[in-house]
Amino acid sequence: MIRSSSPSPKQPESAIPDVVAPGLRVLFCGINPGRVSAAAQAHFANPRNDFWRLLHAAGFTPRLLEPAEQFELLTYHIGVTNAAARTTPGSGDLRKADFEGAAERFARIARELNPAWIGFVGKEAYRGTFGERAELGVQERRLGDTQLFVLPSTSPANAAVPWLVRERWFQELAGRSSGLHLRPAVRALIVDPADRVLLVRFDWPDKTVWASPGGGIEPGETDEQALVRELAEECGLRDFTLGPCIWTRTHWFTDMAGWAGQTERTYLVRTEAFEPTPEWSATELANEGIGAQAWFAPADLDPELTFSPRRLPELFRDLVEGGPAAEPIDADV
Fold first, then answer.
1. Distance in angstroms (rounded) separating the CA atoms of residues 16 and 124
2. Tens digits of residue pLDDT in 43-76
3. CA 332 to CA 301: how far, in whole Å?
4. Angle at 138 between CA 127 and CA 122, to 5 degrees
């Protein structure tokens, strides 16, 4: 263990050791030790806290670590600390004085240990440190070369925020901190005269997701050329007229080798209804995670299903009711 700094004379010694080292990819910062974590001398030790599960789901760790294995994080160039040192039953019991010196401490960490990113786990951890409110995501404030990112709280007290929302922010930080590029990709929202949309079901080890067909753009391809190839391979659609670009999206993830995620442009394709007959074999489809394809009317887009983008049902209903917008819509906003 490497200590980055000593606590302020007005602050108690933390019950939990910092997990820090020079040159970390991400240093995660919780708000303060809770009683369960203090007793275990381990960060995020409450079994109902989703921190360790989200680390694994977002690809920061290759397996699910237990809190007692916290120092194994350094193997993956990940660290963890807290904004305030005092143990409390809940973060609501903290006082302004508990964060005294926190901003200066993180400035020293950035200067001496130079983590690429500091990820604050919860808006209150960031606000307590810097005395200002923040939205989720990348912050304008930097500490030297260290970039700052605010994540949703993983505490059970934040359980009202759905898992998929929290996972999406952890995935973004994983992608941004990977140092890899985003893959350019293109998709087609295929709509028939009855205003049904053709979606592809992707079956992954941890989830099932419905999305529009499409994929990566090969070097030298235009968007239309890539879609001609992708739609023939995935669903057998060969003759179509390419409509306007209706949605854009930046999708961060690290489970595609060599990429931090992808930037997507989705085009409207209106066509007669057809039975998908992919050029790809069943094995090729399975290798891409494709398990099925189906037509959906707006009313059939069950909110219990997972879609990509997650707002797809809402965006599709708006499209059916009002037609394409004058400019492409950011599907993640």
1. 19
2. 999 999 999 999 999 999 999 999 999 999 999 9
3. 18
4. 40
Pull the structure tokens for residue 103.
């901003």
Tokens 């790809």 belong to which residue?
280
Q: How much helix, strand and coil, in percent to the nearest 5, is found in the chain? A: 30, 25, 45
What is the C-alpha separation between 36 and 125, in angstroms, rounded? 18
User: 230, 186 in Cβ contact below 8 A?
Assistant: yes
**pLDDT tens, position by position, 197-248:** 999 999 988 889 999 999 999 999 999 999 999 999 999 999 999 999 999 9
Rounded to whole angstroms, the Cα distance separating 249 from 201 reads 19
- SS3 of 141-201: the string is EEECCEEEEEECCCCHHHCCCCHHHHHHHHHHHHHHHCCCCCEEEEEEEEECCCCCEEEEE
Q: What is the C-alpha separation between 208 and 61, in angstroms, rounded?
A: 21
Spatial contact of 312 and 251, defined as CB atoms under 8 Å apart = no
φ and ψ of 158, to 5 deg: -105, 25
The model's pLDDT over 120-167, given as tens digits with 9 standing for 90+, comes to 999 999 999 999 999 999 999 999 999 999 999 999 989 899 998 999
SS3 state of residue 126: helix
Sequence-distant (6+) residues with CB within 8 A of 111 are 143, 144
**Cis preceding linkage at 309, omega within 30:** yes
196's tokens: 């049904």
CA pair distance 286, 269, nearest whole angstrom: 25
Which DSSP letter does residue 65 get?
P
Angle of helix 102-113 relative to helix 123-130, nearest 10 degrees, comes to 100
Classify 122 in phi/psi space as left (phi over 0), alpha (psi -120 to 50) or beta: left
Which run of H or E residues covers position 272?
none
Phi, psi (degrees; rounded to nearest 5) at 187:
-135, 165
